[in-house]
Amino acid sequence: MNQSNSLQGKTLLVVHTGFEHKKFIFPKLKRLGLTIIVLHKEKTSISPYVDHWIFADLNNHKECIAAIKGFLKEHPNIKIDGVITYWEESTLLVSRVADTFNLIGIPYNVTIKIRNKYNFREFCIHNGIKAPKHIIINKESDIETAKETLNFPVVIKPVFGSSSAFVIKVNTNNEINDVYTYIKSNVSSHPDSAEWDDLSIMIEEYIDGDEVDIDMLLQNGKVKFWSISDNYQTSEPFFVETGQAIPSSLPESSQRELVEMAEETLEKLGVQNGCIHFEAKSTNKGPVPIEVNLRMGGDEVYTFVKNAWGVDLVENAARIALGVYLKIHKPKDPKKYLTGKYFLSDNSGILSQLDIDEKLRTNKYLSEVHMDKEIGDVVLAPPEGFEFIGWITVFGDNAIDAEDNLTQLTKHIHYSIAKFDSESTIGKTSRKNRFSTASLKKDILIRAAKLENIKRINVSTLRKLKIGISCNGCDIVNNGGISDGVYLKKLLEEIGYKVKLYNFDNLSNVFNELKNSNTDLMINLTQKINNSVDQQPNAAALLEMLQIPYTGSDPYTLALTMDKIRTKKLMAYHQIPTPNWDYIYDREDDIRNDLQFPLIVKPNNSNLWDNVTQDSIVNNDIELNHKLDYIVNKMGKPALIEEYIEGEEYDVSILGTEEEDLEVLPLVQSSFANMPKSAWHIYSNDTDLNKNINVFQPAKKLSKKLESLITEISLDTYLSIGCRDYGRVEIRVDCDNNPYVIDINPDFPFETLKDLAASNTKNKKNNSQYFSKLIEQIIDLTINRYKKVPYITSFK
């Protein structure tokens, strides 16, 4: 009986959007005629199916309740009829919402009792329900108590958690301390751990028996539907799920005992309504509850129940939440027999091959195939992580046929893992147990995968990249306007990228942020750290250490170009024309006597404009000595002295890394014709004086011959210095049309690209689009650079 029409016009609040493979839930709900409101921290790809969004931090229940109240106040015509989640970590929040707004649901005091595995065990024992002996570990002495009082084998697990992550079987008391230390040290790395109430750990006796999942629909305290699936033998000691089958092959008497136990447990707990995923074991001493999940089961569960019994858990869970009466006629025999398996790796590594034969997709026995991983992704196997490559479910006319079909269809899927070689990275150090290097190994794997992934990106998948932008604390508001970082973030988000700003003024925080981030590529905008230009190369150095791909030059080139003296020496070696020059580190150093006044004197290791004034140009020895005294003695810096070149200045911006992909952007010309006669024709820290400089992009009245000469000299300089992806060469041209390189800057050419976009477009919208294309060109150049550079990994 189809009761979908009974949901027409009702409003359902859905908490959390879940992983990508749960996206199917939302179009299904929308087709039921529901008005969908989603409570989440941000918009996701399900937006086409959402009528209203409410944004809040799902870990902050108080903030979420306030956000819902605020939404209802702003929309007085909207009435929320029910609340639901299909996500385990949000069940507590849903209970809070149901309690606060008097909606159908499971009370918070019941949910917290169930979500906390230790409390659930305590509840079972106090209510006459079978449960293993157990101890919570609050201090080291509790481990010794567990060794003395529990019978081995035992299971150590987090009090909160899901998907069997960090659930480990221990056979002897000699292993307990190592396993406990491993879980305690690594549990916070689980992607869902931020949503757990705490990270406590418990130990309980191992239960021997057949593990099953019981999926139930409960309304007003009455079980309206149940289904049992058999779980295949887990991969111990880590309890990694390997596969399952539906309907259960257990005897009917055993199945009835399991359902009665689950019903009794839920009734005593006070669970009256909901779609429940109940995990249990059928033992020779009767059924034993393992865990109760107060939401629809994940992964294959929806497909299993739908195909085997014709019951739609998504739709019926929504009906229960909305108070619509449920009447389900479960057939005596299943419509199909289904079985499935997870694709697992024996070792952590990088997915290097994944081939799915097209014949698989058209096979009539295929129910579902889903891959969580793509080529180049890290696959973390225990003890480094608890991840699947994907899963497949198939069906047959009976259980044996389904098993045979599974064997045949899995032959169409081939994958390989580039195994991590711990010896090559960690070295032959003393390691007491298999868990001791798990955290280190995981970090190395993830970092290596970022570089492997970037090599596999192509133009069609470019906008799937998660982009980071490095900047500093001042890069939020700039002179009352939008800063470069914020502006760039906005542009990239508008064309589909996911972007995050990273504040490099706090290196310790940004280190941890980046280490745990999923950023694929960083755009390095950092020019200062804590207002120090000298610290600029450290941003790139940090990204190098974390093996996060980034745009622009490496730390060596960034540091070299800040050292004007060393840069001059390198240009002299490559016979690049530059004004005659000399330098001193100490006031006792000699200066060559053939330099012709006027001279420009500036400190080494500094941003050009920061310490260049009109007084930087000297006409005689007295002025020269005065300036050198100031730079060397007062500033404590070496001094660079070079002949002043009178003439126009040209900025030559270059994109690319190697000769075959280099591109010279239109030259930018600076004319000093309107400068006051008393002023030297230079850029300085006097912003009012700089306003008299006329800038032309592209350059005006420049002969092709001179343009070619400037371009060739700039390219030679760019390659000699070792710039990558982008850079700018600054050139002065004297009255005889002789070009001289006066500086090279490997910083991100933000203003140049912005001006170029403005000069090539007629309106602001087209300007933004053109600018975005230039940024994407840099991203593409960076990716191609990483593709060409061999990366020595610790995989075999």
Descriptive keywords:
Rossmann fold; D-amino Acid Aminotransferase, Chain A, domain 1; 796 residues; six-stranded antiparallel β-sheet; alpha+beta; 23% strand; single chain; 34% helix
What can you see in these coordinates?
This protein has 796 residues and is of the alpha+beta class. Helix content is 34%, strand content 23%. The protein is built from 24 helices and 34 strands.
The largest sheet, given as strand count, sense and whether it forms a barrel, is: 8 strands, antiparallel
Number of helices: 24
Please mark out the parts with pLDDT under 50 across 5 or more consecutive residues, or reply none.
Answer: 422-431, 476-480, 791-796
Shape label: elongated
CATH level-two architecture of the domain at 562-760: 2-Layer Sandwich
CATH topology of the domain at 562-760: D-amino Acid Aminotransferase, Chain A, domain 1
Strand content: 15-25%
Radius of gyration over all CA atoms, rounded: 33 Å
Number of strands: 34
- Average residue-wise pLDDT: 87
State the strand order across the main sheet: 13-12-9-10-11-14-18-16
- Structural category: alpha+beta
The gist of it:
The chain is α+β, with helices and mostly antiparallel strands.
Topology of this structure?
Layout: E1 11-15, H1 25-31, E2 35-40, E3 52-55, H2 61-74, E4 82-84, H3 91-101, H4 108-115, H5 117-126, E5 134-137, H6 140-149, E6 154-158, E7 168-170, H7 176-186, E8 201-205, E9 210-219, E10 222-231, E11 243-246, H8 252-269, E12 274-283, E13 286-293, H9 301-309, H10 313-322, E14 337-343, E15 349-356, H11 358-362, E16 366-371, E17 378-379, E18 390-396, H12 399-409, E19 413-419, H13 422-426, H14 438-456, E20 466-471, E21 477-478, E22 481-482, H15 484-494, E23 498-503, H16 507-515, E24 521-524, H17 537-545, H18 555-562, H19 564-573, E25 581-584, E26 599-603, E27 617-618, H20 621-634, E28 639-643, E29 648-655, E30 663-664, E31 668-671, H21 687-690, E32 694-696, H22 704-721, E33 726-733, E34 739-745, H23 750-760, H24 764-788
Parallel strand pairs: 1-2, 1-4, 2-3, 20-23, 20-24
Antiparallel strand pairs: 5-8, 6-7, 6-8, 9-10, 9-12, 10-11, 11-14, 12-13, 14-18, 15-17, 15-19, 16-18, 21-22, 25-28, 26-27, 26-28, 29-30, 29-31, 29-33, 31-32, 33-34
Helix pairs in contact: 3-4, 4-5, 14-24, 17-18, 23-24
